[in-house]
Specification:
This protein is mainly beta. The chain has one domain (about 1-130): Calycin beta-barrel core domain (Lipocalin), CATH 2.40.128. It is about 10% helix and about 55% strand. The model has no long low-confidence stretch (mean pLDDT about 95).
Length: about 130
């Protein structure tokens, strides 16, 4: 159920994110901003099963709207244009982005009331942890 992810989430921890951004080809200046940004993640479900996922930070706000299992074009915060599909597998929201022959996977799941986002590119894994805002 996507509903369990609905809410306002604040980034509280980020591990290995710089290495992950390097692995997906993000340039130095953008990585500097990405490392400093503490985004809020706002997830909601609209009519017709459309899910909205908005990332808000002082640098940039991005929003994607999607239906599970349906491919869509995503313009990422770091400027990539990807073909993205999001599925729900074993309670995890799994986002797969494909561009220029590369693929990265973001797995979001709830653990102990926190939302974790595992970012995977080849053998590089970053883990970002969000806490539900009051």
């Amino acid at each position: 159920m996507v509903e369990q992810f609905v809410g306002n989430w604040t980034l509280i921890a980020s591990e290995n994110f710089d290495e992950y951004m390097k692995a997906i080809g993000v340039g130095f200046a953008t990585r500097q901003m990405g490392n400093m940004a503490k985004p809020n993640l706002v997830i909601s479900v609209e009519d017709g099963g459309v899910v909205s996922m908005k990332s808000e930070s002082t640098f940039k706000t991005t929003e994607i709207k999607f239906k599970l299992n349906e491919e869509f074009e995503e313009a990422t915060a770091d400027g990539r244009k990807t073909k993205t599909t999001i599925t729900l597998e074993n309670g995890k929201l799994v986002q797969q982005q494909t561009w220029e022959g590369k693929t990265t996977t973001l797995e979001r799941e709830l653990q102990d009331g926190k939302l974790t986002a595992k970012c995977i590119m080849d053998d590089v894994v970053a883990l970002r942890t969000y806490e539900k805002a009051a």
